[in-house]
Specification:
Length: 265
């Protein structure tokens, strides 16, 4: 069989295994959808009569989309690859005739499918349950697609690279802790202009801030661009930063990926 055919088979297997891991499905797939629903209900009254018709669902949607991208790509890869390395799964796979590219194809397929389905559900919940007005112009959807693809790809390769820094015992703290901090300082759960300026600068060093900013440029009214650090959406810079993270993550992943647990060969 070709590497592509094996990769497709591996993708199906990855999806089956992922769907059986209830904790992973909840915290990486369903969590942003649940939070969007909760925030829309809890803070709905605060947006009644808001300028431009902004609703709670519309306000929190870009943040939930951004968090979802990183959770289904970076977090899923970092945790699953670490566990597979420590329990010997990668070692056994390396000893089979399956080409290594098929394994990575399966991981990319898992992230692509889960991220796409999650985004579709988020948009569906926002539109049907909370009346969020979705973009009506092609240029905004083009920006959405660009930010989404770069975010998912970058998150995937960075997650695989990051897996080399942890063991199965420590991966929860090593991954979830930094992810939680980044979500708070990157404008996911609170308005980015409410974050202290020095923390905004810290957040700007990481891709989540740029994914969130890109998503806000798609779903927020144009006048809200003034609340960003540069007073504009910086779409070009957002694309360049996310592209740089994706390329850098790919290089680091290629240089650091290990098939075997530390201390074994």
């Amino acid at each position: 069989m070709s590497a592509l055919a094996l990769g497709l088979d591996r993708t199906l297997l990855e999806l089956k295994m992922y769907s059986r891991e209830k904790e992973a499905v909840f915290f990486s797939f369903l969590f942003p959808i649940l939070l969007l629903a909760l925030f829309s209900v809890i803070f709905g009254s605060q947006f009644d009569g808001a300028d431009g018709g902004m609703t709670a669902g519309g306000y929190f949607l870009p943040g939930m989309l951004s968090a979802g991208v990183l959770l289904t790509s970076f977090q899923t890869m970092a945790m699953s690859v670490t566990v597979e390395r420590d329990d010997g799964t990668l070692k056994r796979l390396r000893a089979t005739p399956m080409p290594p590219v098929a394994y990575f194809f399966g991981k990319v397929g898992l992230v692509a499918v889960s991220s796409t389905v999650q985004v579709a559900l988020l948009l569906l919940v926002a539109r049907l349950a909370f009346g969020v007005e979705l973009p009506s112009t092609a240029d905004r959807w083009a920006v959405f697609a660009l930010v989404f693809v770069l975010g998912v790809f970058g998150g995937t390769v960075l997650g695989v690279a990051y897996s080399s820094m942890a063991t199965a015992r420590t991966v929860g703290a090593v991954v979830l802790g930094p992810m939680l901090v980044l979500q708070f300082i990157s404008g996911v759960y609170i308005a980015f202009d409410d974050v202290p300026q020095w923390l905004q600068q810290v957040a700007s060093l990481f891709p989540l801030k740029w994914i969130a900013q890109g998503m806000r440029s798609v779903f927020f009214p144009e006048q809200l661009a003034a609340a960003e650090m540069a007073g504009s959406w910086e779409t070009g810079r957002t694309a360049l930063v996310l592209f740089a993270w994706a390329v850098g993550g790919l290089v680091v992943c290629a240089l650091t990926f290990k098939w075997f647990k530390r201390g074994t060969t």
